[in-house]
Amino acid sequence: MQVGLGIDTGGTYTDGVLFNFDGQAVLQTAKALTRKEDLTVGIDEVLDQMDQPLLRQAALVALSTTLATNACVENKGGYARLVLIGCDRKIVDRYGPGNGLPPADDIILLAGGHDMAGQLVTEPDWAELNRRVGLPSGQADAYAVVELWGVRNTACESKARDLLHGWTGKPVVCGHEISGTLNSLRRAASALLNARLLPLINAFLDAVRQSLDRRGITAPLVIVRSDGSLMAESVARDKPVETLLSGPAASVAGGLALTGLQSGIVIDMGGTTSDIALVRQGRPVMAAEGAQIGS
User: In angstroms, what is the C-alpha Rg of the chain?
Assistant: First the structure.
């Protein structure tokens, strides 16, 4: 019998399920309060309720969570600093807030970078970047780096990432790693959000790993993406923004699988957010413009 373990950590409750892949049946469920100060507590309480010999048979561990979504809604998460290369301050001032960016005074702006053909125009002032991140106002839990034409040539973003990590020891996210859109402000908002979520999602994955290790469970971890597909643990650690709407997406997949319905409305009502999905002919209707969460 192929056994899978599912864990969903929400803002209020942590849920677990053991699933028989061969028989397509739920074997056992468990629920506990989520302890935000120590996520391992809720996860341990869920796993302790399960049949331990059966639990140790788990060949796969699948995770879903609303932690990233809730952090956006509640404006929480780690403190991240944005570095913009080659972006005009007036443009950032005028259009940045509408794209989810902080005020320009809270952004490290560097001149230079590439043109739209990907050719280097001016090397950014890396000494100035070093000076800015050395100031109290420049310090952060993580950094995001976005160049105006970074999708045409990634060299400046990559060099800034390496320099920042070397100077600070903190994680650094490049815009081209998150999105290929030409809209640099949208790219910056996504990269900054990803940087803010790094401490949160890595703490969640660490908590799950610790709870599994204590029980001798070495099964691989996969995490539900916002589109309902699965990603490896390593991807989620680098791109936690991909876990946005993970919990509601899992609810859609689970609802369809358990009911056998091909069309309908799936409502996921949690302690922090309520999410609704429309399903037609066995597939959730996708938002062409993506999702907007929080402010």
Answer: 21
The predicted model scores a pTM of 0.83
Query: CA 59 to CA 4: how far, in whole Å?
Result: 6
The 13-20 sheet, strands edge to edge: 25-33, 13-20, 3-9, 58-65, 221-224, 230-232
Tell me if 247 sits within 8 A of 7, measured CB to CB.
no
In this predicted structure, what is the pLDDT of residue 165?
Answer: 96
Distance from C-alpha of 8 to C-alpha of 30, rounded to nearest angstrom: 11
Which parts of the chain sit beneath pLDDT 50? none
Q: To which residue do tokens 């910056």 refer?
A: 188
CB burial of 198-214 (b: ≥16 within 10 Å; e: otherwise) equals bbbbbbbbebbbebbee
Q: Hey, what are 79's tokens?
A: 């403190």
**Distance set, CA 255 to CA 222, 228, 248, 249 (Å):** 19, 12, 10, 10
Task: Please state, in angstroms and rounded to a whole number, the distance separating the CA atoms of residues 125 and 176.
Answer: 20
- Compute the C-alpha angle 138/202/39, nearest 5°: 115
Instruction: Render 214-275 in DSSP notation, one character per residue.
Output: HTT--PPEEEE-TTS-EEEHHHHHH-GGGGTTHHHHHHHHHHHHHH--SSEEEEEE-SS-EE
Q: How far is CA 235 from the centre of its chain?
A: 9
3-72+201-284 has CATH 3.30.420.40 classification:
yes
Contact 189, 99 (CB under 8 A): yes
**Structure-token match 């060099």, residue found:** 159
Q: Where are the beta strands (DSSP E) in 3-89?
A: 3-9, 13-20, 25-33, 58-65, 80-85
Kind and range of the H or E element at 203? helix 184-214
